[in-house]
């Protein structure tokens, strides 16, 4: 009788950071480590960091009662494309969370999240699908975060903030708290640069840098 098969999709730096968390999570659940693999069509070795690496078609062909995968892909657009592919092939989105992640009251977390060590999600938060929260990031109270949003390490997202789909927030960025009924908004597909201090809303598709954060000047 076959058993579930679990995968970290992507064996690059992001995937190699998620894999130990996935392994520990399954061990706590009593799942044998042999039922956990990397999936990466570009993998150049049969094992990566001691874990078996399969091409996607091999993953689908491996006997299993069901399949689960977390997308360890930094690019949010690629992450969305792969999420659609997995769903079409009957692969379940899998949330991987470090054991020391803190989740407080009334946190709704969408499927397929990857939550690194020392992440904190406080109270009354809504987070969409396939959220990446890297080391030491936090989301404060009354925030709404869309689908395929990425936090690099050390992001500080304070209360009453709305972050729309596909936004990327760079390492060490600080997002100022909004006010009830008038949240600070990071628009769809916006990029907040490393170390930026965001004190006002960011338009969709914009890239902001600096302290205070301002639109990045283009050459030409």
TrEMBL record:
InterPro entries for this protein: AcTrfase_PglD-like, Trans_hexapeptide_repeat, Trimer_LpxA-like_sf
Active site: 141
Domain of life, per lineage: Bacteria
Site (Increases basicity of active site His): 142
Transmembrane parts of this sequence: none
Gene3D superfamilies from the UniProt entry: 3.40.50.20, Hexapeptide repeat proteins
NCBIfam families: NeuD_NnaD
Family of the protein in this entry: Belongs to the transferase hexapeptide repeat family.
Protein name: Acetyltransferase
Organism encoding this protein: Xenophilus arseniciresistens
């Amino acid at each position: 009788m076959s058993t579930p098969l679990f995968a970290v999709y992507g064996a690059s730096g992001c995937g190699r950071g998620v894999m130990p968390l996935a392994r520990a999570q399954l061990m706590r659940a009593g799942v044998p480590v042999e039922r956990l693999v990397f999936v990466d069509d570009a993998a150049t070795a049969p094992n990566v960091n001691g874990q078996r690496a399969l091409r996607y078609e091999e993953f689908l062909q491996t006997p299993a009662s069901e399949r689960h995968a977390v997308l360890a892909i930094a690019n949010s657009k690629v992450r969305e494309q792969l999420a659609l592919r997995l769903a079409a092939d009957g692969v379940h989105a899998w949330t991987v969370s470090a054991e020391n992640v803190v989740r407080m009251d009334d946190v709704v977390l969408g499927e397929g999240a990857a939550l690194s060590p020392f992440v904190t999600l406080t109270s009354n938060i809504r987070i969409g699908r396939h959220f990446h929260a890297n080391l030491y990031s936090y989301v404060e109270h009354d925030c709404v975060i869309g689908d395929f949003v990425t936090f690099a390490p050390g992001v500080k997202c304070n209360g009453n903030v709305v972050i729309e789909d596909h936004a990327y927030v760079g390492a060490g960025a600080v997002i100022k708290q909004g006010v009830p009924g008038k949240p600070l908004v990071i628009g769809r597909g916006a990029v907040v640069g490393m170390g930026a201090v965001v004190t006002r809303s960011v338009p969709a598709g914009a890239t902001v840098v600096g302290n205070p954060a301002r639109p990045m000047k283009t050459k030409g």
